[in-house]
Amino acid sequence: MKRVRRSGTELEEAVALVLRELGIRTRRNVAALPGTPDFANQRRRIAVFVHGCFWHAHRNCSLAKIPKTNRAFWIEKLAANRSRDKRKAAELRKAGYRVVTLWQCDGREGYARKLSKLVSD
After folding, report:
1. Given 1, 5, 60, 74, which residue has the most CB atoms within 10 angstroms?
2. Is 79 helix (H, G, I), strand (E, B) or coil?
3. Contacts with 95 (C-beta within 8 Å, 6 or more apart), sequence order
């Protein structure tokens, strides 16, 4: 668990590259906002969360399997993570932010497709 990084992951770096290519300037891990979005542009009111499929219990995803050992703990922990994610996204929307959630399994093309909607809006 100690080796699991909270920020600066390979996944985040891939998303940062797509954001730069689309010309969307953001700050990383903005602690002043609810849920500390991985990327945010406060002027344009954009918040982007980059979720690992396992840690955020992505539904119907093969990367989000619950471990067989200590199953009760993991079910409770992952349910709490999903609940917190939902609550923080709702708080951001209430504050007027457009919230985009990107999943590990989306891949680079998926990131570009979802993020390009921010540019066209």
Report:
1. 74
2. helix
3. 33, 34, 45
Residues 6+ apart with CB under 8 A from 82: 56, 57
Cα pseudo-dihedral 48, 50, 54, 56, rounded to 10:
-20
Q: Residues near 21 by Cβ (< 8 Å), separated by ≥ 6?
A: 112
pLDDT in tens, 45-81: 999 999 999 999 999 999 999 999 999 999 999 999 9
Q: How far apart are CA 98 and CA 44, in angstroms?
A: 9
pLDDT band for 119, please (50, 70, 90 cuts).
confident
Count of beta carbons in the 10 Å neighbourhood of residue 78: 18
CA pair distance 106, 94, nearest whole angstrom: 26
* Distance, CA of 67 to CA of 21 (rounded, Å): 37
Q: Contact 103/9 with Cβ under 8 angstroms?
A: no
